[in-house]
Amino acid sequence: MDSLSQIALGAAIGVAAMGRRTAVWKAALWGGVAGTLPDLDVLIDHGDPILNMVLHRAETHAPLWLTLFSLPFAMAVARLSGEWDRWRRWWWAMWLVLVTHPLLDAMTVYGTQLALPFSDRPFGVGSVFIIDPLYTLPLVVGVVWALSSRAAAGHRANAAGLVLSTAYLGWSVVAQAVVTDTAERALAAQGIRAERVLVTPTAFNTVLWRVVAIDGAHYHEGFRSLLDAGPGIRFDRFDRGTALGAEIGGLDGVQRIQAFSKGFWAMWEQGGRLGITDLRMGQEPAYIFRFAVAERRSPAVALTPTEQVGSRPDVQRGLAWLWRRALGEPLPPPR
């Protein structure tokens, strides 16, 4: 999730876990700090854009390593707060904040390596977008209320924010399951034999969902709103570039994206450049994680330094379409 959501979640958990054992501002402050610590791995440059992508949310997001880190961190927090006699409670609070960070991240589609050091498999439920105001707002309101009101009322408001935000995550999983069932039925009705199907929410909401279906050398993209009338989904078909596998399929970066995306990838050639795209984040034709890895120098293909060449959709045009499509208007996506 985005940094604001993680800070808000950390502050809310800090306040809830410490209760009246410390000042609310201290619990919120240290909870917010701990909530953002795992994401400092973005400051590490692995020297390659693909490595930077697949090694994000790795060791710093592994609950085992965070558990080991939580003890010395909590002891430092207790000492700095002048509350050494409560270091065990600070340990409990900081451990909760640290481990819930990767668990929240795993609700997005990106991929969080929760099982390190035993497995580097990326986990991603994909039921919430990386930024979702309906998840974050209850947390922010609860923490602000706790900071600005009497103890009892403030702690109740903070707890209510945590309950509402957690319930929203539960709702997102249910909505995802409903859309997945509809998508599988629609694909079967259209004779599309999908090897794998991805269902993720579009930006900032859990009403409009994007569906990606892999079908051999092609992939299909469609959108489904919970407010749509009827069971149908319109799919657009795109070439997956599998023929380029003979030329760039053996490259380490390409193989890493293929594994990290769990098969939701497409290879491409444009202007003499060859590369691979992670199809999970973005929508046609704009994808954030699009990488150029080689160059065609007839008759051969030459390896080039990896470059991230992804793009974002036009915000004004995209939001206008998003709002109308989420309300059930059968609009084609902006291309």
Quick summary:
The protein is an alpha+beta fold and 335 residues long. The protein is built from ten helices and ten strands.
Structural class: alpha+beta
Helical stretch count? 10
Unreliable runs: none
Largest sheet: 4 strands, antiparallel
Shape category: globular
Radius of gyration: 22 Å
Q: What is the strand content?
A: 15-25%
Whole-number average pLDDT?
A: 95
- Order of H and E elements: HHHHHHHEEEEHHEEEEEEH
Secondary structure blueprint with pairings:
Elements: H1 3-18, H2 24-36, H3 49-54, H4 63-80, H5 87-105, H6 133-148, H7 151-189, E1 196-201, E2 208-215, E3 218-225, E4 235-239, H8 245-248, H9 252-260, E5 265-270, E6 273-278, E7 282-283, E8 286-287, E9 290-297, E10 300-308, H10 315-326
Antiparallel strand pairs: 1-2, 2-3, 3-4, 5-6, 6-9, 7-8, 9-10
Helix pairs in contact: 1-2, 1-5, 1-6, 1-7, 2-5, 4-5, 6-7
